[in-house]
User: What shape does this take?
Amino acid sequence: MLESQINKLFSLPELKFTNKRNLTNHIIQFDAYKFSKFEVCPKCATKTTKIHDQVYVHIKDVPIRDKIVYLRIRKRRFRCQNCNAVFREPVPGIRKGFRSTQRFRSHIRWCASNFTDLKRVTTKLRCSSWLVYKAFYEQLSLEAKKMNYEWPKTIGIDEHSFIRNTKTHYKEFATVFVDFNNNRVREVTLGRSFDSLMSSRAIDIKGRENVKNVVIDMSSTYQKFVKSHFPNAKITSDKFHVIKLFNHALNKIRIETMKHPIFLKSKTSPMRRLYLTRDDRLSFSQRSIVKHINGLFPELEEIYKFKERMLSIYNIRGFKRAKKALTKLTDEMAHSGRKAVQSLRRTLVKWRIEILNYFKTGITNAKTEGYNRKAKLIQRKAYGYRNFENYRLRLLYDCR
Ligand SMILES: [Zn+2]
Assistant: This one.
């Protein structure tokens, strides 16, 4: 092969390749040396040509046709004529003190993120699991550093559980900031309290005045955080979580109702499904069952109707019409004497502006919930993380 082609293949332009040997059936070794005329002293930055001695180093590179590749590089040691220091010549593409090329380390990253488990990576690349671990997270942090752009226009914030704290035995949570404009996870921080958010990495990201829309679930901590950190943001309450509130209240009353002796006692009740499905998706016979039971239990019927009303509000197009409908709903709820309805109404009134913002922006937190799902998968694939920093790097890398 032509020399220039070999150089292109290795893309280490400063090296000259001299020889190739098969050490075993699986290992190839290439001999190489650097041909520069002078080197610059790392201590005083003076040019020097005086060679002290030379050493041979063995550097691991990306496999060729499933064969392990070693580069045996002759490295000269120079003596600085100015400060008398002795130093080895550096080779671009191989970091100082490392026994593998940068290319090999980024190849480890590719394998570790695409293979199903670490064992396969170590057998394929014939290296220790420690090297895989170290090189993988080193490369991920390099990738994460590349991502330093400003806050986008629209973001979504949500939390998911991370690990159980071994000391307090409480579950710890991670908060994700999803960039809706570029469809990726922008930042992950540990904890969901206001103080932990205010001291997190999310604060360091520049351009917080760019953010115009933020979607959150109905958590007052996130509301407080968004109001204090994103001055121009309009908060939208996630549609799914509003409906969830209604379903939760309905389910509670349904369980109470089903203690009545006319119901059969069974653990998997078809009633649950019937009451969680929205009215227009029920079949004719299902709807008549619901109607019949509602006729027997007025408290169940009341909250069922409120739930259906809320669902139909989300079908309304136009902010003004939706506002009118929501006002009507909360007014009617005020007349109810039931505790569950009253507490529901209080939440609706408290989050009124945020709920109505949906009819202006039309965004939901579906993307964020999708990334939460992915985060859970990553945790499961690794059988849980203990180190939050590693988890963060992995999540940022996989959700981009
Ligand atoms: Zn020097």
